[in-house]
Amino acid sequence: STPLSTKDFVNYQHGEIYGINHDPDRFGQTFLRPQTPLKNFYLTGQDIVTAGIGGALMSGVLTISAIKKRDYVSKIYKSVQKELA
C-alpha cells in the first residue's frame, strides 16, 4: 500500500496510516495526554505517544500511571535495568 492508496481507501487527508499527522508539531500538543478536563475520563492509544504497537503499549503505561497516580514508567525501567545487569 502507498500513501495514495491509504488516502483513497481510508480517506486520510495526507495518506497517513496512524491517526493524526506525525509532523514535529504534534509532539508538543497538550491535548495528547492521558488526562482530560473531564473527571475520570482518560485517553490512551497510539496517538498519545507515537505511532505503532510500541507507542500504543507505552500509552497504556502512561494512562494507568495517570489513573493510579503512580510512576509505572520508572518502575518498569528499573525492572528492565535490573534484569539486564
Description:
The protein has 85 residues and is mainly alpha-helical. The protein has one domain. Helix content is 45%, strand content 0%. It contains three helices and no strands. The protein is globular, with a radius of gyration of 16 Å. The termini are far apart. The mean pLDDT is 85.
SSE arrangement:
Elements: H1 3-10, H2 52-68, H3 72-84
Separation of termini?
A: 42 Å
- According to DSSP, the number of beta strands is 0
Coarse structural class: mainly alpha
Tally of separate domains: 1
Q: For the report, how would you describe the main beta sheet?
A: none
Average pLDDT value?
85
Tell me what portion of residues adopts beta-strand conformation. Answer: under 5%
- The sequence of SSEs as H and E is HHH
Helical stretch tally: 3
Uncertain residue segments: none
Helix content: 40-55%
Radius of gyration: 16 Å
Describe the global form. Answer: globular
Task: Please tag this protein with its features.
85 residues; mainly alpha; globular
Quick recap of the structure?
Helices cover 45% and strands 0% of the residues. It is an all-alpha fold and 85 residues long.
